[in-house]
Design goal:
By secondary structure, the chain is mainly α. The chain has six helices and two strands. The chain folds into two domains: 40 residues, no CATH class; 82 residues, Multidrug-efflux Transporter Regulator, Chain: A, Domain 2 (Orthogonal Bundle).
């Protein structure tokens, strides 16, 4: 059973990080659904977004079930304080939902991707 789990884990990791975006998103969605089987809304603890899988989901797919998130969820996705996220909204670096209910997830995702590109340049990855 351990060998099978190790093989499955390796396969899922390859799928979620692979070039096939549809397969990656489908696999991530299945994995999240397996963990959150209760059928409730996807509301992981803030620390989940800082796990390797949570950070990957945030960067590649945004939020699995919401186009707009609260300021506290946006800050958790970015790994910064709520005040830091609020400052980014005020400076126009994150987009507030036009209805005023939160932060647009795609703007959080763009910020995460731009930070990753910046880190790659600094480390010589580009």
């Amino acid at each position: 059973m351990r060998r099978q789990l190790a093989a499955d884990t390796e396969m899922w990791a390859a799928q979620v990080t692979g070039r096939d975006v549809d397969l990656a998103q489908e696999t991530a969605t299945r994995l999240i659904a397996a963990v959150y089987q209760s059928g409730d809304a996807f509301t992981p603890p803030d620390a989940w977004w800082r796990t390797p899988f949570g950070a990957l989901v945030a960067q590649r797919f945004g939020h699995p079930s919401a186009a707009v998130v609260s300021l506290s969820v946006a800050s958790a996705m970015l790994g910064i304080t709520r005040q830091g996220a609020h400052d980014l909204v005020k400076r126009g670096k994150l987009q507030r939902d036009p209805a005023g209910t939160g932060v647009v997830v795609s703007s959080v995702q763009r910020r995460l991707v731009s930070q990753e590109v910046g880190r790659s340049r600094v480390s010589g990855g580009l």
